[in-house]
Amino acid sequence: MNFWQRRSVFVTGATGLLGSRLVSELVLRGANVTCLVRDWVPGSPLIANGLLNKTNVVRGELEDYLLLVRALNEYEIDSVFHAGAQTIVGTASRSALSTFESNIRGTWNLLEACRTCSKKIERIVVASSDKAYGCHDQLPYTEDTPLRGQFPYDVSKSCADLITHSYFYTYQSPVAITRCGNLYGGGDLNFNRLIPGTIRSALYNEAPIIRSNGQFSRDYFYVGDAVDAYLLLAERLPDERIAGQAFNFGNEKPISVLALVQLILQQMDKPNLEPIVLNEASHEITDQYLDCSKARRELDWHPHCSLEQGLRETIRWYREYLN
User: Fold this and answer.
1) Which CATH number fits domain 8-182+221-252: 3.40.640.10, 3.40.50.720, 1.10.10.10, 3.30.43.10?
2) pLDDT at 48 over 70
3) The one catalytic residue among 133, 153, 184, 222
């Protein structure tokens, strides 16, 4: 039987890149989905394709504890995916307080609300990030790498991660944590991010902008594979071997910013567009990439989509969207 059939699922960050795909897949699998929606973003795939109309919608913020308790209780939620957060590094640097409010306070509010409704809730998956690890000389990150974020976004994810662990060890909350590489895919409307920004520039025959020196290396992870990872992890809860654990998810194939931009331009038949390298990036870690052997070993998980395949799908989506 389909695991998600008739389950009552609460998704925060439902209109974002990950949340939209996650909600779409849960609806397809027959779940009764309740979405927490703060801002109405007409371009979000979840809204544009009408799928949000097939869910229960709670309008509000993670900072509103009583709203979360009401939603979890009234919709009799048994499964929670916490994907809601302020996710832009630059925005976090400009406004640390609002980032801390949503990413840190929002996480403890949700976990405390889940504890209040603990008789119903069977599983909670919390989105951390590879940024939670902070800067380390030894790479790739494993799940045993200490969490020591320094810049506002990284700190917010380190804190949210540690708070989630605290709720497991103190209250035995049925939680698991994802630490993913840089997510990308169709539906990301934050065009200040590298991949959607580069694709849009190429479609308009404009030179792509690189904020850094182009040498920063990252692990880019296709959102479709991320959704599969989230669902698989949730299905294993509240197994005592999984609860309280963090798992890295990514492609394990880091690539530099400049090399990624060139790959996108090649796939779009725009190799002659010369990127503009601003070398202005600040409050960012130079090199970040993941070791995902724990997920392969404990969950029998592996990504299905190569970077080249994922970029082809992503470029196709933006061609249609921007036209």
Assistant:
1) 3.40.50.720
2) yes
3) 153
